[in-house]
Amino acid sequence: MVELLRFRDDEPSESPAVTVDSFGDQSNAGAVRIEPGDDARELLPHLAHVRRVEINFPVFGDGRGYSAARILREAGFEGEIRAVGDVAVDQLAYMRRCGFDAFQPDKAMNDADVEVALSRWDDVYQKTTDGLTPIWALRHGNADV
Amino acid sequence: MKILTGNDLKTGDVTWWDGQGWSRHVNDAVDVGAMADEIAAREEAARNVVSAYAIDATTDADGIRPAHIKDRIRALGPTVRPDLTLKPADPEAGNWVI
Amino acid sequence: MYQYDKYDQQMVDTRVEEFRDQTRRRLSGELSEEKFRPLRLMNGLYLQLHAYMLRVAVPYGTLSGAQMKALGDIADKYDRGYGHFTTRQNIQYNWIKLEDAPEILADLAKVEMHAIQTSGNCIRNISSDHFAGAAADEIIDPRPYAELLRQWSSFHPEFSYLPRKFKIAVIASDTDRAAMRLHDIGIQMVRNDAGEIGCAFYVGGGMGRTPMVAPLINAFVPLDELITYSEACLRVYNRHGRRDNKYKARIKILVHEMGKDEYTRQVEEEFTHLKAQGIEPPLAELARIEPYFADPAFKTGIVDEIASDAPDFALWVGRNTVLHKAPGYVSAVISLKPVGGIPGDASADQIRLMGDLATEYSFDECRVMHTQNIVLPHVEKGRLKELYDTLAANGLAAPNLDTIEDIIACPGLDYCSLANARSIPVAQKISERFAGNGKTAALGELKLKISGCINACGHHHAGHIGILGVDKKGVENYQLLLGGSEAQDTSLGKITGPGFDEDGIVDAVEKATDVYLEKREDGERFLDTYRRIGMDPFKEAIYG
After folding, report:
1. Residues of C in contact with B14 (CB under 8 A)
2. Which of C91, C83, C86, C98 is nearest to C115 (CA)?
3. How far is C146 from chain A (nearest CA, A)?
């Protein structure tokens, strides 16, 4: 069973995450936690100091965290974005596409299910920052989009 | 009386708790009293039923009558397709729901 | 029409396998109902009153003959021999078993169909003008843009857990046949002063318990920014739409509470940001899609008259055929509203027959209308009589398009777990009443729409006459609304006053139509007369 799933080569930073509100005053914190109502863009001026962003999903049906992750990646953030909370295997593929590269679910996931979920989709219709070539680019012979 | 109803997980059929298991016929339903939540939780966990809930019902000459029209329609079937209800041979069956 | 390439096919096939695995995990107990529910909904599978219900997507309402026939086969193989065409231009099956659902999706995938995102808090099936590609008044066929949006919105990683469902419509004429401004996003294809095609964006419309007409937020989005602009509209909604109350979670509430100008400002800001992300497919992708929607090989020099002395046929031609852009052709509407019938229902045999007729008479194409009828878009006038004879022999020739008998009705409490009252029996009684009293013809265009609850799947707010079923202390009760329209003159109906029982509402409808017949002036439709004279004369007749 998987309790922390991580797609990074660097050592995990386990420094405690501070809230977005308090982060402005403690920009040496290293880790910050985004709640669903927080504006991820408030972090953008400070991203150089951040090693880990936790995005909390108190309930899996609240999808604001997907936008938060994409906004951070679109701003060039290369640190860890960790989904925490009510995160299940059936949300993994979309979360990866939005830029999450670590998962710490409340309820551990089954290894085999994780492997299946992450290897299922060969192609994608949309371009995000995950490096996958969208189908429209494959169709027009442009694999570098 | 309080009776317990839900849908069969695999088939979606409307079912009623008959004291031992789940019946398709509302007249088989038994009074579950204060046990509704416990039975529902146990049976949902065993995957015998989905979306189980307790309703008020009365007993009359026709048998058990759910208090709300929605559950009477669930007990019978769509009033606009008598052929697809549990009483396809009775063209007047739809009047029971009103 | 559009055909899948290997990528489209693989995406749909993969989804079938994903759902097969999810269903297996549900049946084995690995997935709880709470976790499974949104997954099954995103594959169109509901739990309704009597069974599971499967809603199959019909993108922009367009089907090939073979696809239509496959829908008939599914009705026989997995359901009880019929299907229900919906106000979302989709088809629903009412008696589905969970254990069969993956196999049905596999059968659909074989004919390039699916049930992806026909429910759930995600971007739903894209709807469009049912006469697209045939209408004489369109500036361009809207469906290539709808297809581009279909692909963008399918499996969207960021927008699959939105605050609430999200519906998009695309049209390309000033005449609105798709209730465009009653969608979360309504797009009208327009031409600017330079003659270029672009998209006018209307955002924040909808029906439901708080009906709103979408305001225009951008009059011209260029074609090569369509996806990026849509993404910006959705991102602002996903981040800021209300999640504290499901009844206030639709984008219409956000646009209303934030204000159109502030919403638009935020969209523009997000749009500027996203343009730098390069997420827009190249115009070459639109150019790849467009030829699939090219005109079929219309014959030229064919007969442009409809010759028949048969009165039944003449009546049907007058009511159920629509002007076509190509000489010698019409669009023919197959009414699924026989007098006393269930609006939108068709038997498996009828569905297969309509598929055959599409192949035989309409260049292998048919359409589902949001009014729950079927269109054969391109029929030669010279062959209409033989088409009509076949329809008539199979119970499909009701001559009542856009009349008071052409009623939209949601499934209501006969099928739907959300409903408060039955809709279908009311529709049946009204069509029988007016077919019986012979007033249908005199009333002319009269759009009557019935919903069995406030969610408004039956578009009651937008009916010239609307009926809303409510639960009054456990008894079905029906409110009457007048003055709605979902066409280019979009308006929302107003409630007349206290509600009625099932027979009372039928009487009230007839009284309202009598006021019209008495007060109308030359050329006025019911809606026009209502707008001219207002509610009072109707109230007086109904309650006086």
Report:
1. 49-51
2. C91
3. 15
* Domain-wise residue ranges, chain B: 2-97
Do C428 and B9 count as a contact with CB atoms less than 8 A apart? no
- Cβ A92 vs Cβ A103: under 8 Å: yes
Domain's final residue, options C370, C393, C416: C393
CB C176 within 8 A of CB C490: yes
**In this complex, does chain A touch chain C, defined as having at least 3 beta-carbon pairs under 8 Å apart?**
yes
ipTM higher than threshold 0.85: yes
pLDDT digits (tens, 9 = 90+) for C44-91: 999 999 999 999 999 999 999 999 999 999 999 999 999 999 999 999
Radius of gyration of chain C (CA): 23
List chain A residues with CB under 8 Å of C25.
113
Phi, psi dihedral angles at C503 (to 5 degrees): -75, -35
Cα–Cα distance, C445 to A143 (Å, whole number): 54
Give me the residue from C8, C30, C235 closest to A67, CB to CB. C235
Q: Using CB atoms and an 8 Å cut-off, which of residues 402-461 of chain C contact chain B?
A: 413-415, 417, 419, 422, 424-425, 428
Beta bridge partners of C96: C52
- Quick one: C166 exposed, middle or buried, by C-beta within 10 A (0-12, 13-18, 19+)? buried
Distance CA B88, CA B96 (A): 14
In this complex, the residue of C25, C39, C152 whose CB is nearest that of residue A125 is C152
**pLDDT of residue A144 exceeding 80:** no
Name, in order, each residue with C-beta under 8 angstroms of C97's C-beta and a sequence gap of 6 or more: B10, B11, B12, C51, C52, C78
CA distances, A36 to each of A20, C157, C256 (Å): 11, 17, 22
Q: Do C417 and C533 belong together in one domain? A: yes
How far apart, in whole angstroms, are the C-alpha atoms of residue C131 and residue A126?
A: 29
DSSP A16: P
**pTM of this structure:** 0.96
Q: Does C29 touch chain B (CB under 8 A)?
A: yes
Buried b (16+ CB within 10 A) or exposed e, C459-470: bbbbbbbbbbbb
Q: Which segments within C251-373 are labelled E, that is strand?
A: 321-323, 329-334, 345-347, 365-368
Q: Considering only CA atoms, which of A63, A116, B9, A59 is closest in space to residue C33?
A: B9
pLDDT tens per residue, range B17-74:
999 999 999 999 999 999 999 999 999 999 999 999 999 999 999 899 999 999 999 9
Output the domain CATH number for residue C376: 3.30.70.3340
Count structural domains, chain C. 4
Phi and psi torsions of A38, nearest 5° = -75, 150
What are the two backbone dihedrals, phi and then psi, of residue C535, each rounded to the nearest 5 degrees? Answer: -75, -30
Q: Do residue C151 and residue C268 come from a single domain?
A: yes
pLDDT at C203 over 70: yes
- The C-alpha atoms of residue C289 and residue C274 are separated, in whole angstroms, by 24
Q: Report, as an integer, the average pLDDT of A19-48.
A: 88
* Short-list C19, C254, C186, C49, CA closest to C117: C19
Quote the crossing angle between the two packed helices C526-533 and C536-543, to the nearest 10°.
100
Say whether both C214 and C361 belong to one domain: no
Interface contact C99-B11, CB threshold 8 A: yes
Q: How many whole angstroms separate alpha carbon C9 and alpha carbon C108?
A: 11
C366 is a domain residue: yes
Query: Could you list the residue range(s) of the whole structural domain that residue C328 is in?
Result: 311-393
CB-CB under 8 Å, C414 with B80: yes
Instruction: Indicate if C428 and C511 belong to the same structural domain.
Output: yes
Q: Hunting for tokens 């940001």 — which residue is that?
A: C273
Same domain, C276 and C139: yes
CA-to-CA dists, residue C528 to C405, C450, C482, C483, C534, angstroms: 19, 20, 11, 9, 10
